[in-house]
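Quick check before the chapter quiz. The format below is the same one you will see on the exam, so make sure you can read both the input and the output lines.
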Amino acid sequence: MVKTIAQINERIKKGEVVVVTAEEIIGLVDKKGVKQAAKEVDVVTTATFGPMCSSEVYFNFGHSKPKIKAQKVWLNNVPAHAGLAAVDVFLGATEIPENDPANSIYLGAFKYGGGHIIEELVAGKDIRLKAISYGTDCYPRKELDTWINIEDLNEAVLFNPRNCYQNYNVAVNLSNTVIYTYMGVLQPGLGNANYCSAGQLSPLLNDPLYLTIGMGTRIFLGGGVGYIVWQGTQHNPNVARTDKGIPKSPAGTLAVLGDLKQINPEWLRGVSMTGYGVTLAVGIGVPIPILNEEICQYTAVKDEEIYTQVIDYSEAYPQGKPGSLAEVNYAQLKSGKIIVRNKEVPTGGLSSYAKAREIADILKEWIRKGEFLLTEPVQKLPSVDSKIRLKALKER
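Here is the expected output.
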């Protein structure tokens, strides 16, 4: 049975749509078979919630009197980028205050930074804005020190160049000392293993070949409505995959955009990572229209069918050396332990499966109540038939 997104939207408007989460479709396909499940279900909701460093905001804070052409800007003493128009500002989630000792006083605590400011902006807190300029005839002011609030900004946009990684490494530490990474604290001698994916709930693992998710797809973004606007940076579809098309290492990514004023701080959180830096935890939900049996089969993927690689973050990862210590699946990771080099290693997840499940349920309700219609992608993401390969830097 073949459906179109337009037909599914009509069913949403009439209150007839059948929506299940990526967890629920698994049992349905097991019980009724993929042919019947594809006939009964219109939409499967997927979700993830975890730290995503490639996240940022830009906004326009409005003209002062007299006007200033902001050359350098600080938000709560954290540098923001002002190399845009006069009062447009860009802030990355991983930016830290200029007086933060970082790792010069080891271990750096990284208590505050861009991710925390983004969370505070969304929460409606006042943010101190300082700007300096060289002054021009049309923008004569040279200094500005004031407070801003998201309600007073003209536009405030969340624009994340790389979110929703399709699969990711499992991080371990082969050295004899504790190391501190963006994958969390790693104990020496294979003392623990950290992973960061919702597995069977994760958006791009439910549409592994990007048949429905593309530019223009409407999504749940931080509690509001956002859109996929491009493939994310480091999008790398041509990696080794299982017979069912599931990538076995980091592959596809998404660039997403949404109105910061719609977003809820519950789904956008500043995060401090000891010894590493600051980042932003982002909640994203993506609806997958069940247009045919093939797409339905993809959404029924189970944790035990999703494999990923165990990588040493003490030597191999930082030195860019290839190789995997082991290949494990998400059922094993979520069991609390994996076997690496004949050793039982306890596992921990950086992303919140409970939060991802909550987002999938919220999106399901939005669609069921007719509050959220699906969109037709205007362009597909580059897939396995593209020539895209991830490149390392050639230093010259």
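If your answer matched, good. Helices lie at 5-13, 24-32, 34-40, 114-122, 293-299, 316-319, 330-334, 353-368.
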